[in-house]
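Researcher: Here's a chain I'd like modeled. Treat it as a single chain, no partners, no ligands.
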Amino acid sequence: MNTQQIKAIVMQSNLMTITLAVALTLMLVFVLMAGQSVLIPFAIALLLWFIINALATALRNAVRLGSHVMPKWTGLLAALLIVIAVVIGLAEVVASSGLAMLDRLPQYAENLSALSEKLSLLLGFEIMSQIVTAIDGLDFEAVILAFTDGAASLLGNIGTVILYVAFLLVEQQFMPIKLNAIAGTDKRGAEIRRVMDDISLRIRTYLFTKSLTSAAMAGVVWIFLIFAGVDFAGFWALLVFILNFIPVVGGIVSGAFPALLALVQFPTLGPFMIVIAGVATAHLIIGNVVEPRFVGSSVNLSPLIVILALAIWGLIWGIPGMFLCIPLTVIAMIIFAEFEATRPIAIALSENGNLSQAQ
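Model: Modeled as a single isolated chain. Structure tokens:
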């Protein structure tokens, strides 16, 4: 067999490998999209499972009676109840605030009309008519109803998510035994446990740092909203905290909603400008300086990959995929790093090529 024949065989083998990889990727995307009604609640349950275990560990370390430590099952139960109460409370706040906004829509419409008349005198009728047409195109009622429907949908699926979480908590005591049995050898079992621990540590660190920066951003926006006198300031601050978990666009979108409300709540532009200043300040200091330094180092993902992951998971799973895109991409990067054939993919996903940076 000559050199040319060897090259042809290698090229054919590489082509078959690429074809197989593309086929498997397309098949995976199809399964994720077709099974999203089952997979999305399970993915959320996995994320909550990580949170509950981290919270249970924190409770056991914090609550001590002398030399006695809280039993493990007690910590897990307390953490589970706290998470359930928080999720249900958040959904109820969103739903109740949305209904209250619907009741005030006539007042907002009157204020918007008065503001339009004042602006028409300053800007001229032609320019103002274009602005009014653009504002009229915004269906505020549809946006509010979308929030309330989303909260109702969350409450409808919460039972399924809690069921998944409960079974995960029951199964976790047998997971080390199953992993050892699957691995076949103690060495391979130790490697699998190391990967699982790495995934758990990365996700816990990401959630902790992201929660801190999101809370800081929500606090800054809340202060400016209170100063401007915007309705439902607490709700908008909560929305900023939640939507900031969506990379890049979440913080911007969450800041746009209270700004729009300020525009229709008051017949003047002063409160609107105050809200814009607050949102801009929060994004300038926290979003562009603090968050990239702490959150970025915790996940070790390239900013370009974050944008692509947001678009891809948003296309596959919609808004839930946008929330889950960072944890899912981190898990994929860690798994890819464990195999020689896929390690280049992990390096491409990382921020600077150093896969051990956040380990």
